[in-house]
Specification:
Mean pLDDT: 78
Helix content: 40-55%
Structural class: alpha+beta
Shape: elongated
Oligomer: single chain
Low-confidence stretches: 1-32, 652-660
Largest sheet: 7 strands, mixed
Number of domains: 4
């Protein structure tokens, strides 16, 4: 049966025996679709058991009892071989499972002379196990097939000419030659050439993106009409695509709260059922009809087996997480998936999240600091060059804007750089301490009026200080994402509260918030303040935090669900998050919440159905209303229904596509 039902011997490995935490343990052959059912070797024994069972019953009904018994015994052996050895191995290790209940029930039926019922039990249990395994494989296949977007080979640019190597052997800093229509072998940055790339298979974004020198291209994206020279920023075996697969496989290996609830119910049920069955047998000897009550004890063993309960959640979680990954949402655990479905408040960072993450320098103001001639030619460029030098190693989006505003010839080098999250950065340039940061950290000096004007225009202001004295201010504006207002409107229509958390000044934050429709704005926050705001919001319900930078990491870790936006986000933010979006389209947020809410409803329905089956079948078995064969049929049909219901969670991908 499933991992949850039968308790796998090695929970740290996937069903294939690999460690899901190691993306290098995957290769192309293992991502082929499951074989057709008529070629599936796992179905061979159950199908054989079914055929022999039919023949045996046919011989029995036509008056050939001895041949019938032989054929039914063969059917029993074929079906039992799929679960009895595993049940015995787990019993030796001190683990009880549903397979043990079925083994005892089948053995007891044989001892009582009911070989046909034992064969029916073994067949139905084995076929349900095989179907469940196929359902699990099918649910996982969509995720594993994601690796098929990766090319098998890559073309490297060498001094001696182009060389073709296996894509897995690409290393960071290699120069890839990507021709028209070819896939990018790993994450990289365009070093030369201009084209458009299609990232729909990885990020879910259907519109091709124009790229040129300096543009980031993700692994698996398809190049358009031009030829690109791409510098690899990740190894071929450790890029954004393999990371997606690793994260989701790790998620599938972990259980959510409902999974743990199902496990907590199922695990004690197995020994409890054994105790109840033993008590029924003892009762039979007391009242003087041990044969009758032993038969009923065997039927009770089957009726009260919690297999459907144990698989109620895992199939749903695997299906839903796999489907989410295919439309650009990577959910790192079953618990995160469940929490995502409970979210009623969403906190969103501003810079790089609500905005396009392509900020540009729009204005430079020079302060009249001592020893500074504000009329000196090139002084504004010097202020920007100093700021860019200190911010060169920062992952903050504003750092990219500063770097882009300085020509290669004018760039300076900073040493001893120290970053103060939420405040700024300082370093040494030509022996002088340079500080670059927000107006909360550095004194605006005599340019307060100019700074206020920039902020009123929606620009973020960065102050530059030399030896502690402010020499200028740089206005940087990042345009709002075109879909941000729509995403916020959808969230609010779904009764989800939205608030903005930003370290930027309040005036700039309000200007951006007004454009996207957010009324709850918390500005000028340090990372700890963001975390505190999220914690306060969690007191009234599950809260998601959405961000992409180092400043957001504490809040992402504090939230019920931390969501990191985009594969280009800070590694710290991605590690702190529970959910990562491979794309940057904010409409993924309401889409993911709806998908998770539906998954929660399916999980809850599965648990209720599985418990209801036990509650109904137990008295029917105890009082002899249903015999062994009848209980087995009802129980295994219910199990198939639970599996089919869980697989419905994968339907979110199609609905997500239609909602675009």
């Amino acid at each position: 049966m499933s991992a949850a039902c039968c308790t796998p011997e090695d929970p740290e490995t996937s069903p294939s025996g690999q460690n899901p935490a190691d993306p290098r343990s995957t290769d192309v052959d293992e991502h082929d679709a499951p074989a057709p059912w008529w070629l599936d070797r796992a179905l061979a024994l159950p199908v054989l058991a079914g055929l022999l069972l039919a023949v045996g019953y046919g011989l029995e009904w036509t008056g050939f009892p001895v041949p019938a018994t032989v054929v039914l015994a063969a059917s029993l052996l074929a079906g039992a071989w799929t679960f009895v050895p595993g049940a015995l191995r787990r019993l030796i290790r001190g683990r009880l499972g549903v397979g043990l209940l079925m083994t005892i029930a089948a053995a007891g039926a044989v001892l009582l002379g009911h070989v046909g019922e034992a064969a029916a039990l073994a067949f139905l249990f084995s076929i349900a196990e095989a179907l469940e395994d196929r359902a699990m494989d099918r649910a996982k296949h969509g995720l594993r097939a994601l690796l098929s977007v990766m090319p098998e080979t890559a073309r490297l640019s060498k001094l001696s000419g182009d060389v073709v190597i296996p894509a897995a052997e690409v290393r960071e800093f290699d120069l890839l030659v990507v021709g028209a229509g070819e896939r990018v072998a790993t994450d990289g940055v365009v070093a030369e050439g201009r084209s458009s790339i299609d990232t729909s298979a990885v990020t879910g974004e259907s519109i091709p993106v124009d790229v040129g020198p300096g543009a980031v291209v993700p692994a698996g994206s398809i190049n358009g009409g031009g030829v690109l020279l791409v510098e690899a920023t990740a190894d071929g075996r450790d890029n954004s695509v393999t990371t997606i697969v690793r994260l989701v496989e790790e998620a599938q290996a972990r259980s959510g709260r409902r999974a743990r609830l199902a496990d907590r119910i199922a695990r004690p049920l197995v020994p409890a059922v054994l105790v109840v069955a033993a008590a029924i047998v003892v009762f039979g000897f007391v009242v003087g009809d041990p044969l009758l009550w032993t038969e009923r004890a065997l039927v009770v063993l089957v009726a009260a087996s919690p297999c459907a309960l144990a698989i109620a959640v895992p199939v749903t979680v695997i299906s839903a997480i796999g489907a989410a990954s295919r439309f650009g949402v990577v959910i790192t655990s079953g618990a995160a998936f469940e929490q995502l479905g409970a979210v009623r408040t969403v906190a969103i960072d501003k810079t790089g999240t609500l905005t396009r993450n392509r900020p540009e320098v729009v204005e430079v103001v020079v302060a009249g600091a001592s020893g500074v001639d504000v009329t000196a030619p090139g002084l504004r460029q010097q202020v920007v060059a100093l700021a860019a030098a200190v911010e060169a190693g920062s992952t903050h989006p504003l750092a990219a804007a500063l770097a882009g505003a300085v020509s290669p010839a004018a760039r300076l080098h900073a040493s001893d750089v120290i970053e103060h999250p939420g405040q700024g950065v300082e370093g040494v340039v030509d022996g002088v301490r340079i500080s670059v940061g927000s107006t909360r950290w550095l004194d605006v000096g005599g340019i307060a009026e100019e700074v206020s004007a920039l902020e009123a225009q929606g620009a973020s202001v960065v102050l530059v200080a030399v030896a502690g004295e402010t020499i200028g201010a740089i206005g940087i504006r990042d345009e709002v994402r075109p879909e941000a207002a729509e995403a916020v409107a959808i969230l609010r229509s779904d009764a989800v509260e939205v608030m903005m958390l930003t370290g930027d000044n309040r005036r700039t934050a309000l200007a951006i918030a007004e454009r996207v429709g957010i009324t709850d704005v918390r500005a000028e926050l340090l990372p700890a303040d963001k975390a505190a705001a999220v914690e306060a919001a969690m007191s009234s319900g599950a809260t998601a935090m959405i961000g992409d930078g180092i400043n957001d990491a504490p809040a992402l870790a504090t939230a019920s669900v931390g969501i990191a936006i985009g594969v280009g986000g800070s590694a710290v933010a991605v590690e702190a998050a529970d959910v990562a979006f491979t794309g940057t389209d904010l409409r993924l947020v309401p889409r993911a919440l709806r998908h998770a809410r539906r998954g929660r409803r399916i999980m809850t329905g599965n648990i209720v159905l599985a418990l209801l089956i036990i509650v109904v079948l137990f008295p029917l078995a105890l009082f002899g209303v249903l015999g062994l064969a009848g209980v087995v049929v009802v129980h295994e049909i219910a199990e198939v229904v639970v599996i089919a219901n869980g697989l419905r969670a994968a339907g979110g991908r199609r609905r997500a596509a239609r909602s675009r």
